[in-house]
Amino acid sequence: MLIKILLTIVLAIVVGNFVGESRGIFGISFYSIFSFGGQLFLQALTLLVVPLVMSALVSGLSQLGGNSSFGRLGLKTIGFYVFTISLAVLTGVFFFNIIHPTPISLGQHIAVEQVNQIAVVSPGEAFSKLLLKLIPSNIVYAAAEGNMLGIIFFSLIFGYAIAKVGGQSGNLLTQFWQAIFQTMMKIAEIIMKILPLGVFCLVAKVVASGGMQSIQGLGYFILTVVLALGFFIFGLLPLLLKCFGISPVEHLKKMMPALITAFSTSSSAASLPVTMECVEGLGVSRRICGFVIPLGTSLNMAGSALYECVAALFIAQSFGVEMTIGYQILIAVLSLITSMGITGIPSASLVAIIIILNTMGVPAEGIALVIPVDRLLDMCRTTANVYSDATCATLVAHMEGEALFNKRALAT
Q: Could you give the angle at which helices 371-400 and 302-318 cross, rounded to 10 degrees?
């Protein structure tokens, strides 16, 4: 798939640069055809947003009902998830401000009043709107208008409530949402089969309208994401393990098969069996491993959160939005929240980026800027997701006193 995507991108650049905005066939410009095809692909991705995110969160949290130690184990697990995702997002913001990836000027391709509307929204106003969207008055209406913050909040509460209900009713609801989740993953796999066609249309449209200069800024964007992910994987997570008396080097060696699988498949869900085997090999009990790792596949997307944050900042900057501290904080918070509803399938972060852009008032079409390199960076961020899950599982087991072999074998 990766080779096919790369060839598609090259072809789209060549074709888009050749046809421009004026060439066409039968009175229809190729630019219009690319725009229509790209819009269909974006709508197909957006179609998955509500059922995929909702089923992932509800089914993940509802499974906590079978664990009698949820009050202790569940809170520790989710606490580590939120902590590692926060570290990842802050790392992304830090490297974005250090490297300053060159923006791709797209302001001329949208209405001037739309750009002005984006620029005049103050951080305080945006934050107040964020809080109002967080708790919707009508969940059906929130789903209809694409209010993902409200959907995520409701899903977290609903999944937690199912876990507390338990019994036959709780099991029935858990199985129902798990079935929806598995079905939506299958639909996502089907849509991803047309990913090359969607990538071709979106990239060709950008190049046809903006020329070759429209993709020149991607080099610094790639550098920003890769360096930030590398620092998170090989710097912050090992430091976190070191603080708990666990050897980062030995931990990384044990996890290498899972990381290679994650990098090659770009899917933390596909890597799940290998990840669990490696984590158990660290000395983590099956009780801890079977609880923390599968839940992390839905909730602990630290690498994805980092990528979504940098991508959203990069796209917003390209539309002429001023990168104030308040604006960056809002995007960081949105990246943290949305990443916890993104399931472990290839290119799922595209959906999250669309959510962030829509929430901040930036045109979703801007996602075409990062799609040419999304598949390549997907491999890197999935590796970060899997290693973050493994680190959380190891630390939770350490605090639960169940990783005794791990403490003897990996102690420095």
A: 150
Taking the CA atoms of 121, 124, 127 and 131 in sequence, report the sign of the dihedral they define: negative
Q: Look up the pTM and report it.
A: 0.66
199 with 46: CB under 8 angstroms? no
pLDDT band at 355 (very low <50, low <70, confident <90, very high): confident
Beta bridge pairs of residue 29: 24
Domain that holds residue 145: 2-410
Q: How many domains does the chain contain in total?
A: 1
Q: Which residues pair with 401 in a beta bridge?
A: none
Average pLDDT of the chain, as a whole number = 76
**Residue 137, burial from CB neighbour count under 10 angstroms (0-12, 13-18, 19+):** exposed
Exposed/middle/buried for residue 130 (C-beta within 10 Å: 0-12, 13-18, 19+)? middle
CA gap 37, 59 in Å, rounded: 33
Residue 72's CATH number? 1.10.3860
Query: Is the pLDDT reported for residue 110 higher than 50?
Result: no
Q: CA 39, CA 45: separation in Å to the nearest integer?
A: 10
User: Collapsing DSSP states into helix, strand and coil, what is residue 135?
Assistant: coil
Give exposure, 145-156, as e/b (b: 16+ Cβ within 10 Å).
eebbbbbbbbbb
| pLDDT number for residue 135 | 81
Condensed to tens digits (0 to 9), the pLDDT of residues 126-139 reads 456 666 777 888 88
Per-residue confidence (pLDDT) for residue 86, from 0 to 100: 92
pLDDT at 289 over 80: no
The CA angle 158-160-161, to the nearest 5 degrees, is: 65
Indicate the SS3 state at residue 28: strand
Q: 246: helix, coil or strand?
A: strand
DSSP state of 342: -
pLDDT at 353 over 50: yes
Q: Which distant-in-sequence residues (6+ apart) come within 8 Å of 196 by Cβ? A: 4, 5, 8
